[in-house]
Amino acid sequence: MLSEPMINRLNEQINLEMLSSHLYLQMSSWCAYKALDGCSALLSQHADEEMAHMRRLIDYLQETGGLALVGGMQAPPKEFNSLQEMFEKVYAHEQFITSKINDLVHLANTEPDYATLQFLQWYVAEQHQEEFFFKSILDKITLIGLEDRGLFWIDREIAALAASGSKEVTAIESTPQI
Ligand code: OFO
């Protein structure tokens, strides 16, 4: 049985996960519009992942007798000055989501609600991985640069990531010829 404050916070997180999904879907469309197909594919996959995160929360609320609420939300931003700016926004958004997960963990710990505390561990690990993943992409953008054919090579790198379905950015797979 969940407390009222916990039900409210889990419902807030449901809507944050949906917001994340909408944001990445809009970014995916922006990339497709700019012919950045690799980035578009990666962000589209990520939008699906965020919906799965939302569903996981809905299932948990239903299993514990809470009423899951799917609310409305504002449209996400649809214009970006550059690919770098867009991925900076992704990284900042993931850091924001991590702070919200941390708040939830704090609530579960102080109530205490050990079942929810355990449930949330998956989100803690996921956020760590996602922050690392998007920071690694930003690092690659800095390394390759957006000048000349940089955008092409970055999109190619990200297309490889999307095709592998991996969240591990380890090395540049195809180094541009200089
Ligand atoms: Fe950013 O992954 Fe959901 O929580």
At a glance:
This protein is mainly alpha-helical and 178 residues long. The chain has five helices and no strands. It is elongated, with a radius of gyration of 18 Å.
Could you characterize the architecture of this molecule?
This protein is mostly helical and 178 residues long. It has a single domain (4-73, 81-173), classed as Ferritin, core subunit, four-helix bundle (Ferritin). It has five helices and no strands. The chain has helices at residues 4-33, 37-63, 83-110, 114-144, 150-164. Helix 1 (4-33) runs antiparallel to helix 3 (83-110) and helix 2 runs parallel beside helix 5. Hydroxy diiron-OXO moiety (OFO) binds next to helix 1, helix 2, helix 3 and helix 4.
Q: Helix and strand layout, with pairings?
A:
Elements: H1 4-33, H2 37-63, H3 83-110, H4 114-144, H5 150-164
Hydroxy diiron-OXO moiety binds at residues 17, 20, 50, 53, 94, 97, 123, 126-127, 130.
